[in-house]
What does this fold into?
Amino acid sequence: MTSATNTAIAGPWGVSFTANLTPDKETGLGDWTEEQFIQTMRTGKHQGKGRAILPPMPYWMLGNLEDDEIKAIWAYLRSLPPVKNRVPQPIDPPEGAQR
It folds into this structure.
């Protein structure tokens, strides 16, 4: 049996949690396409068009990689065994906190 713990990072955006990058269809990247992954790394947006990706994902650094390099990361992530690990949604900063 595999278990995982949540890893969180706090900052002016509130609290965010590391994503499940395994190919699990329910809680990870299992329903994503390679193109969505590449666009996410390039734009900093979930699936290339959704909500902003929050720290700790260093998309601004990964987005500078060549397409072949991002595709290699994608291939590696797809090779991992799927792990069911629903990650909590980000927590907004307290009202009145400076962003």
Observations:
- Residues 10 and 16 are 6 Å apart (CA to CA).
